[in-house]
Amino acid sequence: MKYPEAIENLIQSFSRLPGVGEKTAARQALNIMKWDKEYIYEFSNSLKQITDLKFCRECGLFSDHDICEICSSEKRKTEKTMCVVESITDLMAIERSNQFSGVYHILGGVLNPLIGIGPDKLRIDILKERVIKNNVQTMIMAINPSVEGDATCSYIRQELNDQEVSIERIGFGMPMGGSLEYLDPLTISKALENRKSI
Ligand SMILES: [Zn+2]
What we know:
Helicase, Ruva Protein, domain 3; Dna Topoisomerase Vi A Subunit, Chain: A, domain 2; elongated
């Protein structure tokens, strides 16, 4: 017994989500079928709308314009401090802590040769350009602690060796393999306070 094609397609879409297997995907798809039609339309509209979202040319955050609100803020730029993160969710977590007033740079991941993520797949070239263009004095590497994260920090350190920028890594209170997005604002602000040069 196979599901009708429409349901099968929905199951396939759900299975693309990380951590969702075929069974969970099927359960969710069948759950949605019980929704009122208007909720289903709303859901599909939200999905459609994200395809129109733009990303900031500078930091990589989603934005309605070419340059996001944070990157275009004079106040934030004059800090001459840049916080480098892996993902948008990590940026949001740091913003929630209210402890950082400079600009950000989203790498889009960390180096991981095993799954084919080399420097060309991350936004490292733009990072270098921005450090020079904005005369960044301090760069805070808010990269999650992991073997790949460490390697990424070392790589960026090397890439910026010829620049006069002090590079610091956050760490305090961050468990190995932990992720910023799951930390509470207090732990994040502690991690931002206690950083060391790399
Ligand atoms: Zn931006």
